[in-house]
Design brief:
- There is one protein chain.
- The chain is of the alpha+beta class.
- It has a domain at 22-116: C2 domain (Immunoglobulin-like, Sandwich).
- The chain contains 4 helices and 8 strands; from the N terminus they run αββββββββααα.
- The protein has helices at 2-22, 158-161, 177-185, 191-221, and strands at 29-35, 41-47, 54-63, 66-77, 83-88, 96-103, 107-110, 115-116.
- Strands 3, 4, 6, 7 and 8 form a 5-stranded antiparallel β-sheet that branches.
- Strand 1 and strand 2 form a beta hairpin.
- It is rod-shaped and about 195 Å long.
- Residues 1-23 form the signal peptide.
Length: 222
């Protein structure tokens, strides 16, 4: 009987230890920050509770040791293979998140230590770099078309750019070079006529003198 009692106590202790090992506890949960197929940030929580207890998972973004915002809250039923929950979150590099687990009256605590994101953001995350996405780059249609550039006809012509020639108030033709020389020497078209008149006056004067002397001689002879 004594041997049977010892064997029963040993079996009960083994079953108790096995039961405690299979019970839901915080060590069954883990969290990791990653990126999905589209390059967007995610936080994935895995529950490996083989007892299949339903648990509520809450994820908080931390700032200076306090909750800044609630990222999301979901329920999960653990499996020995691991059941996962995924939260969409555009996390910044080296940010911290608090992951809280609550499963009935068994677990009500955080995963420790807090989740720290990688040092590089996801490629599809806007926090990775300050460069604009392809949709923000100018489209070919935004560049000036050939029709918007000034055509050759719109440029000022040479005739409009040259200054008009200066004109004098006198519309009479300018004297030729030969005329100006004649005016300076006195050789114009009236010279022959004046010479003819002068010659005629000389002849008239000479005739008058001749006839006057003749009459004076006739009067003396009488």
């Amino acid at each position: 009987m004594r041997i049977l009692g010892v064997a029963s106590a040993t079996a009960a202790l083994a079953l108790g230890v096995a039961g405690n090992a299979m019970a839901c506890n915080i060590r069954d949960f883990s969290a990791v920050a990653g990126c999905d197929d589209n390059g967007k940030g995610t936080i994935t929580v895995t529950d490996t509770d083989a007892s299949g207890k339903e648990a509520t998972v809450s994820v908080y973004l931390e700032s200076n040791g306090a909750d800044e915002k609630l990222v999301g809250e979901k329920k999960v039923t653990g499996t020995s293979a691991g059941a996962t929950l995924t939260f969409s979150e555009e996390w910044a590099p080296k940010a911290q998140y608090r992951v809280h687990i609550k499963a009935a009256n068994i677990v009500d605590e955080d995963i420790t230590p807090n989740l720290t994101t990688p040092s590089e953001a996801c490629k599809g995350s806007g926090s990775e770099t300050g460069t604009p996405s392809p949709s923000e780059t100018p489209k070919p249609s935004d560049t000036p078309s050939a029709s918007e550039t000034p055509s050759p006809s719109e440029t000022p012509s040479e005739s409009s750019s040259t200054a008009p020639a200066t004109t004098t108030g006198d519309n009479s033709p300018s004297p030729a070079a030969g005329d100006s020389n004649l005016a300076e020497t006195g050789a114009n078209s009236n010279t022959p006529m004046i010479a003819g008149i002068a010659g005629a006056l000389v002849l008239v004067g000479g005739g008058a003198v001749f006839f006057g002397m003749r009459r004076r001689g006739a009067s003396k002879s009488n």
